[in-house]
Amino acid sequence: MTGWVVIAGLGPGRETLVTPEVRDALAEATDVVGYIPYVARIAPREGLVLHASDNRVELDRSRHALEMAAEGKRVVVVSSGDPGVFAMAAAVFEALEAGPEAWRALEIRVLPGITAMLAAAAAAGAPLGHDFCAINLSDNLKPWALIEKRLRLAAEADFAMAFYNPRSKSRPEGFARTLEILTETCRDARPVLFARAVSTPEQALRIVPLPDCTPDMADMRTMVIVGNSATRVIDTPRGPILYTPRSA
Amino acid sequence: MTGWVVIAGLGPGRETLVTPEVRDALAEATDVVGYIPYVARIAPREGLVLHASDNRVELDRSRHALEMAAEGKRVVVVSSGDPGVFAMAAAVFEALEAGPEAWRALEIRVLPGITAMLAAAAAAGAPLGHDFCAINLSDNLKPWALIEKRLRLAAEADFAMAFYNPRSKSRPEGFARTLEILTETCRDARPVLFARAVSTPEQALRIVPLPDCTPDMADMRTMVIVGNSATRVIDTPRGPILYTPRSA
């Protein structure tokens, strides 16, 4: 049996956002590895072993996946959203690069998924309709000074901004600081989208002018999208639509 | 009959990347509108009218979709990739905002898709594994000076960068200028991915150190991804893997 590793994106939650090629890979797998809540989305079946692990053990999980593939297993590493955006793909390649030479002969494929910012943007309208950036606000793996530098330059460049991992209980001050920096650099009332649990039954959207944003509006299940200087809100009887014109 | 507009992303080409919810919307539609090559991807069936139009008529197409929905039709506006990323969603909302008040009562939904940069990144590894930006290099709708400003600030912020619409026959000089600016600001040999016709049978990937990049390496079917200063290549018997570590 020839083993392989597929690093697959399950999308942000709604099952109708999972691509057929990800479904096909899961149907062929012998083993699935991933963070507990993502592995919980995989239907158990005979012949499939589910290996759920805790957060912050991405490298251990990656090595485990590569070891199993080297033994001939067909392994799917599941990520929420897209595996290449602040998710498992980079971790697997870090483990591959540091691991035994033999691992490099393995078949490793990345299957893209709908990343949270695209689902959040779609649910609210089209706030990423022009040039934008995506920033991971977690400082677990990089210094906060680098995040702050990127925020200032992104505001100066007038990018719309999508923030992943905006706020956790262990470091609530990062997002508060982010809002201070944006208020100071943007100097306007551009709309900010807080999209919580996007594409799940608990989805909740909120559009707030930048000066009125407060840190408690985001938690780790919230995707935050800050408009650029031209981002607009259209009021409709069905609710507000947030979008960034193509000329911005 | 109650009309609606769904703005749907077909992904970059491979049919197994089309989400089930987009398939479902197409199955319920009475009318499909879009740019000729995207409408060509929709299987004809009885009861479905296909309205293919040329490039650069996005606003006309959007108004047509909204008019038909107001008449009770179920209209899918098709985009390649994700409709919210340099595609039709922003155009439909521009038309909505400028159009008759009655249009605002229409049901309008955006269904996300796999945008080209995610498919290109997945095909090459995980070059967007950390903070990144997406820039449309076309100056059809914005001044070139704004593009140049964003390129310089993105390089200073050390974002990985994904470029949409890098080069067309009518303005070949933009991408040449982009490479000059990046060489001047990045001052290193970071890898650049040229991903042509990604996820189609003609897919061709090429990874080139920044100083060796030339304008002819990209055309309008090419997605260009420039790594950040930490982006790396792993050599394997199956070919190079491009990725950006999570700490970058």
From TrEMBL, chains A, B:
SUPFAM superfamilies: Tetrapyrrole methylase. GO terms for molecular function: methyltransferase activity. InterPro entries: 4pyrrol_Mease (IPR000878), 4pyrrol_Methylase_sf (IPR035996), 4pyrrole_Mease_sub1 (IPR014777), 4pyrrole_Mease_sub2 (IPR014776), Cbl_synth_CobJ/CibH_dom (IPR006363), Precorrin_MeTrfase (IPR051810). One of its GO terms (biological process) is methylation. The keyword S-adenosyl-L-methionine applies. Keywords: Cobalamin biosynthesis, Methyltransferase, S-adenosyl-L-methionine, Transferase. Residues 5-211 form the Tetrapyrrole methylase domain. The keyword Lipid metabolism does not apply. Pfam families: TP_methylase. Pathway: Cofactor biosynthesis; adenosylcobalamin biosynthesis. NCBIfam families: cobJ_cbiH. This is Precorrin-3B C(17)-methyltransferase. The gene is cobJ.
